[in-house]
Amino acid sequence: MAEAHQAVGFQFTVRPDGVDLKLSQDVIKNIYLSGVTAWKKKAIQFKNGVLAGVYPASPFSWLIVVIAMMSSLYTHVDPSLGMMDAIKENLPYRSCVSVQTRAVLSAILFATGLWLFLIYLLRYTLKALLSYHGWIFESHGKMTTSTKMWLSLVKMFSGRRPLLYSFQASLPRLPVPSVDDTIQRYLESVRPLLDTKQYNHMEILANEFKDSKAAQLQRYLVLKSWWATNYVSDWWEEYIYLRGRAPIMVNSNFYIMDLLYVTPTHRQAARAGNVVHAMLQYRRKLERGEHAPVLRALGTVPMCSTQMERMFNTTRIPGIETDIVQHLTDRKHLVVYHKGRFFQVWLYTGGRHLLPSELEMQFQRILNDTSEPQQGELKLAALTAGSRRSDLYESFIHIPWARTRIKYFSQGVNKTNSLDGYAKSLLHGKCYDRWFDKSFTLISYPNGKMGVNAEHSWADAPIVGHMWEYVLATDCFHLGYTEEGHCKGDVNKGLPHPSRLQWQIPKECQQIIETSYLSAKRIADDVDFHGCLFTEFGKGLIKKCRTSPDAFIQLALQLAQFRDQSVFCLTYESSMTRMFRDGRTETVRSCTAEAVAFVRAMEDAGATTAQRLALFRKASEKHQNMYRLAMTGSGIDRHLFCLYIVSKYLGVDSPFLKKVLSEPWKLSTSQTPQQQLNLVDINKFPKYVGAGGGFGPVSRVTSFHSSVSICCPDPGSQSDSYRFGQHIRKAMIDIQALFKPENDKKTAEHVKIVPVENGKKHI
Fold first, then answer.
1. What is the pLDDT of residue 390?
2. From CA 352, how far away is CA 329, in angstroms rounded?
3. Is residue 383 part of a domain?
4. For residue 441, what are the domain limits?
5. Does the annotation mark 327 as catalytic?
6. Full-prediction pTM beyond 0.90?
7. Is 387 within a domain?
8. Where are the transmembrane segments (predicted)?
9. Which residues of the chain have pLDDT under 70?
């Protein structure tokens, strides 16, 4: 579109006496400004790259070291212990350079080497400090003297004003747990789920593996941990996500909702204009590395920022055997899908981003466009929703998206309610109005609501949640709207209109699109969703009970699951491992023996409140300890997963690893966390909280729950999302009632609660 626009201002006529050339001043000005912006961007990226590259030192510190070494030349004190003299004598072209010049050069070279040595010393000291995780196992609010000293040292070696990637080189590597520890914890995790015969069989398999094949596989894994920055993440991305041939819609992609109680404007184009502009601001800071690093643990310990690099300009590209994640360095347009048409919208003019008001005008032009979709265009995106394999599946012959893309799209394209319905729309929509392969798709509704559908292979939910929090805060508290609900600012009506993408889709390809759509629709229709908004109490009240809100929720889920299904099941809770370089997630197996004992006591009419409360505290402490182990690299499942991958590479058969990797997770509690950045004071603006997000169901047997959302794969079957939601609500109330006598003694103060992520609340 920009090329076509500039061509209007560039005209020439060939005459017998020469060429008459005409140039538009506006076009020349835009070209000049675009060039200035591009070079300015490169300069800032270079500067910030240098700052992050030498962190925790600074370029100025190099000058100080050089001056100190130069001063030694005049004081006749040699701090280099003769090294500067050795450098001076071994400089090339000695005969062409004076003695004084060689002395200065030797001082600069020694100073530079000393400076680099000190940088690496600081980094490895900080890495050693960050490798200590004893603090995480201490009781909340009871910090030991050693931990206080450790925290002070971390702050001292962390430098000042770090950028987003400043800590990357100082983050420790993810350690490989011992096989004995992992197997012991695994057997402990499955004990409450197996009868005596099943457990004895599993114990035999585990011991056989430990005594025969484990040592060989572990050696290769330890070798990889020394060589790679993270021994898990690359295999996790490839084998769990990119090699999966099932549809990624519902099965992999996740969604994040808008603000729960507030819609800043009901004008669809205006809301989209502000949100897209806020995203452009976020992307600019991301590309330059100007975001502050994410500091979560104790407000000081840094988290890995690697996943954020691929947030924008990234698409999952289908392949025959495995997909790839393609990240482009810079893109200057976005594609809008509306009523079956694809439009390209240019995001820059005169070397700057389009203003919110200009974006609103462009989006309104698309909304006003009455043109019809081209042949095959309406459901084209269904190709990204369908199967990625070529086989018979549920009565449909699936032509994989990879083969279709290669055959029909390898040349590219040319330019010319309620929470229930809301969440289902974000998760899968109509199965053809989301490009599920994109790193994320921004979804705009006619009533002004927004949402995000995100592809999962490139990053985990907290990464997208980080961006979304920034966008919502910028939209509501920095950009704002006029009294009529429009974006603020003047409108440049001279901007070229968004252009339609042109497609040539033959009949054969249209049939493949329809087949992919029908299979995706069956998946979407099979998802039963219930948005359970819990307002009885929240995180503030749970903390007053002196227990972890996360443990409280997980034990409530175990109680709800047992009441709903009358059995216990293997339960997945995700924890992060981003305190390590390139860390992603680890699994916490929430269904512990202690949790089972507590649930049975809750269902035992003869158990007293004191007995139930004691069992709750024991189960809560167990869960918190498992979560801490997972965060610090001592989890179970990623280690066993990597051992299994090594066994497949070596052709080693392990019945134990096969059994472990084939166990179904019938209850998954993955989450899309919010309030990571604290950009909005929830106490001051209690209505500006997000509605959370979630994932699709992981099992065709029982329920899946995420945040305040509950999602089941088969409406009307033994898994019913509404019924399960009511069990969760009652379980939380029943558990909180155990603490009521204690709370009544402490305070009678009225507490105002508002809901936030994961069913937790803020005061």
1. 53
2. 17
3. no
4. 251-373+414-426+436-503
5. no
6. no
7. no
8. 50-74, 103-122
9. 1-27, 29-31, 34, 37-38, 389-400, 410-417, 671-674, 698-719, 741-763
